[in-house]
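REQUEST ID: PR-0412
SUBMITTED BY: lab tech R.K.
PRIORITY: routine
TASK: structure prediction, single protein chain
INPUT:
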Amino acid sequence: MSNVSDIYAVSHLDGSASEGADNEEEFYEYYDLWVRYLLGAKANLKDRTLTLAIYHQTPIWKATRFRFVVCHASPTGNMQVALITVGDIVLVYDGLDQSVPFELQDSWQEHITCAAFRPSGTVMLAVGCAEGLCIWEKNSDQMRLLSATGHKYVTSLTWSKNGAHLVSAAVSTHHIVIWDMDKKNFVRFVPGPGGLLTCYHQLLFSPDFQLLLCADNNSRASICQMNQSGNQDLNRKDVKRDLLLMKATIHAAAWATIGDCQYLLFAHERDSKLYALTCKKEDGLWIQCVLSDLEAHPEQFIVSPQNNLLVIKFKKKNFVKLYKLVPCENLPPKIIPLLCYYSTIDGRAERDENIFAECVAFGEDDSPEDPLLVIAWSSGSLHHIKLLPSTEEESLHS
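STATUS: complete
OUTPUT:
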């Protein structure tokens, strides 16, 4: 593994640059007004929606049918699937056999980019949109809006392990927001010294929920050690941050536990290489290597709950590709290509070059050891594939 290859610098930071501000909300209110004054209301809207299109992982932002899909194993045993449409409607399927989804729609819920189910407790779905975060609870058609001054056009969100905290990033804000869902308050946190023109477009918790990736628009990535255990509150003063200066902006990324190490798998904009980044336990040094040249531009990475499978959705390709993640002692992990999945008609692969995979997700049903791969296609179909121990025996459902 090369020593910090393609990482230009690493800075170790402690605490938060935004702590201790008594008039913090007043500052962000004036800052938001200042941005609107300089750009103008229409220019500001155009600039922000353009940014969403650049950093989002769907093929064509305005023309795509589906912008995001996320799965959740509910306490009832059914796997819930939330599918975001281009019309800013969230379709929720309660179980894979449900033919008519439940629609979640609200006038505040526009320019949706992302969504995530709460991992524990009440079945709750958080949706990132232009106004902030829309919170929906199961068996209720009432939406609750989480908003903070200046925190508009949410680009990414992620839950803490116990579901007590929700973390979000947005266009035109150089900070992220950590929401306390039980206490119903929030704090702002600055992952790195990027200045007021920095915005974060991707937030990802590591499998052990101790590390949080915050990828920004200026070829930087901050990895924050969140120091959370059990029901302990997130304290931004205790967060340790490593700022990595990359050769280009991170476009697609996913965490994976391979062997006894946690790896960040990622790709840069307009780059076909798959990189792996990990932290050495001995000295805390971040090291990186190239795992593979994928020979196409990856648009989305997802890793199975078992951390042994990687699925890659490529830009303007009519298939998604399944890989096996293999640990290698004292060496970088290997990825072994297994299968390609195409859109299907009546159970048969339809290799139409005009049909693209728009978004993908992993889920679990009544057999957690056998993950389900969910693919939303540009044709309007939604497929789920059960990946059995022998991938040659997977059964296809649609």
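NOTES: The chain has two helices and 31 strands.
REVIEWED BY: pending
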